[in-house]
Amino acid sequence: MRINPRLTDKLMRAGLTFLALLTVGILILIVLIIFIKGFRYVTAEFIFSYPEDMGRLGGIFPSIIGTVFLGLLSIAFATPLGVGTAIYLTEYTRESTLTRVIRFGVESLAGIPSIIYGLFGFIFFVIKLKMGWSLLSGTLTIAIMVLPTIIRTSEEAIKAVPRNLRTVSFSLGATKWETVTRVIIPSAASGILTGIMLSIGRAVSETAAVIFTMGSSLRLPTSIMDSGRTMAVHFYILAREGISMEKAYATALVLVCSILIINILAYYFMHKMIARYS
Amino acid sequence: MNRNIIDKDNLVRLVLILFALSSLLFLFVIFAFILTEGLPLFYKVGIKNIVAGMKWAPTKGSFGILPMIISSFMVTTGALIVGAPLALACATYLSEYAGRRTKLFLKPSLELLAGIPSVVYGFLGVIYIVPIIREHLGGAGFSILSTSLVLAIMILPTITSISFDALMSVPGAYREGSLAMGATKWQTVGRVVLPAARSGILASFILGMGRAIGETMAVIMVAGNALKIPTSLLDPLRTLTSNIALELAYATGDHRRALFSTGVVLLVIIMSLNFIANFWVKRRATK
């Protein structure tokens, strides 16, 4: 039997459109459910008060602070290392065996699942280096975890800076380092910021690597040696131990909103970069 | 004075090399610590008794993780069977059919949604998928089926965006050539564009598989965490990742070492998957 190609064409177009809308629809539905179910419970009091009775009552203030600390401290470690690596790979060397080995290392780090980072941070920072379950252990673990993201986005950003900017800078007598710090980094800033925002996003949404390094203390962390709980960990414990569905939805809403805002910023910086150089 | 500047540039170069080498150092330290904690048990009780062992009773000297290896592969395969066609359809629609405005809306929404924390997927799986399976298909609901569905949704953004990039990198001339010969749109997409992007699409499936096999917390929430080899789609299961996360907080001695051994097995699987994916991507790049 001969199948009419025009009919097949129409059917496939309809089928693919349907499946694409279904895919995006499922993901949007997830965000909508969280918004609708959590909306009622997110009040100023929920955000600014301390949890009581394991999180059954009260708010999530300490875990918001814990999340902010973890996100900012981990990029404070990872950004100089990551941007430095990207500058070295793009500006200071040619493709060689060494750069291939470094790129292989970065790719491998990116492929390691977060539970392995959790295992590593637990045995290395928490136990061997005796840092205990603390903000510091969590920060260092997450910093290594997000390093590949920062390296790759910074590398892309630096590569996108037009060659002639470098040539002009050198011809004006600037040294390599002056060219890098005053011309290349400012021109690639939006792209580098994209990587930083994506990294903060990963730190905020991570659970497995955080729970075994930073612990899950409900108290407000006041030093980097204190244990603390990020929103993602708090949400996981609330949901898994069935402590409170209301608080779980409310925490999920704050968590998802934070992630969406962070990713929108990342997207904004990425488009600024693209608009500038293409 | 001039000399000084040159020296400074050399110093900067040295510092940057050290920064660049730090990634390798971290990789080395991670492997060193996972292996030194995880390998001794392989010598002590034998690789076979761990990798092919059926019984996990770590406080009584049984460290078999075969059920978890099988479970990990089952839910990952399940996630791919459900998620890969959907994601590929979505990527094909986006790159070949969608108008400019649709693309401008759909692509960013997908990328934003890729950031939803995995615990949120797990939670919604417990609230919506598990009870539906329990009521309509039987069993406890915590099962291969529910875990596969949650993972499938989780890997949608990953697979979609990587296959989309693969499809977009197919030269426009291929499409024009095919259409000029009188082929319909679908004939062009199905017989020219998709085959041309084949290796990139396969790489996206493997990376999605890597993401699914490495996922931990969402899986713990919906899998039921039982220790047997699941024999039906409705049986509960425990994956390699959830085994580690469920017991790490209180394990000591050989029990803790056994969790690192589980980590070693997981690392080997992930590294092989990444190697295969990179191999495919490389082959595409050289073509």
Overall pLDDT confidence of chain A:
93
Number of helices of chain A: 11
Q: Give the overall shape of chain A.
A: globular
SSE succession of chain B: HHEEHHHHHHHHHH
What's the total number of strands of chain B?
2
What is the highest CATH level, the class of the largest domain in chain A? Mainly Alpha
Overall CATH architecture of the largest domain in chain B: Orthogonal Bundle
What structural class do the secondary elements of chain B suggest?
mainly alpha
Query: Mind describing the biggest β-sheet of chain A?
Result: 2 strands, antiparallel
Overview of the structural elements:
The complex is a heterodimer of chains A (278) and B (287). In chain A, 77% of the residues lie in helices and 1% in strands. Chain A has 278 residues and is mainly α. Chain A has two domains: 5-41; 44-277, MetI-like fold, CATH 1.10.3720.10. A two-stranded antiparallel ribbon of chain A has the order 1-2. In chain A, helix 1 (5-38) crosses helix 11, helix 3 (61-92) crosses helix 6 and helix 3 (61-92) runs antiparallel to helix 8. Chain B has two domains: 2-51; 65-286, Orthogonal Bundle (MetI-like fold), CATH 1.10.3720. Chain B has a two-stranded antiparallel sheet with strand order 1-2. In chain B, a hairpin with a 4-residue loop joins strand 1 (56-57) and strand 2. Chain B is globular, with a radius of gyration of 23 Å. The interface between A and B is large, with 80 and 84 residues.
